[in-house]
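Summary of Year 1 activities. Much of the first year was spent building the evaluation harness for sequence design. The harness presents a backbone, in tokenized form, and records the residue chosen at every position. We chose the following record to illustrate the format because it has been used consistently in internal testing since the harness was completed.
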């Protein structure tokens, strides 16, 4: 028993000096953004110079306190999504303006020069996932009015 106790302190020192990894994949830089906001317009399909298609849309995220009219300032973010042809891309392309969405995206800052030598930078967001949280407010009202009219017509 005494022999085992004498070995424990040296074993714990060896363990403290070793490093442990929690993943088998290589460490990568991470820059992600999560947005909850409303679509500025319906998403659009574009072709890149290489012929690959991508879906682009903008999301407005309200920030800060409300003003006297009850409105808030909004920050606008442009998002690109490389979605293969199929039901998921059709679903995203058919989301109407004003839909509240949750977007998880990879973020990257790109710098470039414009005419006159001015340096500019832009934030590029590439969608990882998107979830619809609610439909546009006016569309919800139109659906409830249609349901009310259908119920009145049935009487």
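For this record, the design step produced the sequence shown next.
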């Amino acid at each position: 028993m005494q022999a085992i106790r004498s070995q424990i302190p040296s074993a714990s020192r060896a363990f403290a000096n070793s490093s442990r990894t929690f993943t088998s994949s290589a460490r990568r830089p991470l820059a992600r953004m999560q947005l909850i906001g409303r679509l500025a317009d319906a998403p659009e399909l574009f072709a890149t110079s290489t012929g690959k298609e991508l879906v682009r849309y903008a999301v407005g995220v309200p920030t800060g306190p409300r003003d006297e009219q009850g409105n808030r300032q909004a920050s606008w973010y442009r998002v690109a999504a490389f979605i293969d042809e199929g039901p998921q891309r059709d679903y995203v392309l058919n989301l109407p303006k004003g839909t509240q969405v949750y977007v998880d995206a990879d973020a990257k800052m790109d710098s470039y020069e414009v005419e006159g030598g001015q340096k500019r930078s832009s934030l590029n967001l590439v969608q990882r996932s998107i979830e619809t949280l609610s439909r546009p407010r006016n569309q919800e009202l139109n659906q409830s009015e249609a349901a009310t009219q259908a119920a009145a017509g049935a009487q």
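The first strand starts at residue 32 and ends at 39. Quantitative recovery figures across the full test set are reported in Table 2.
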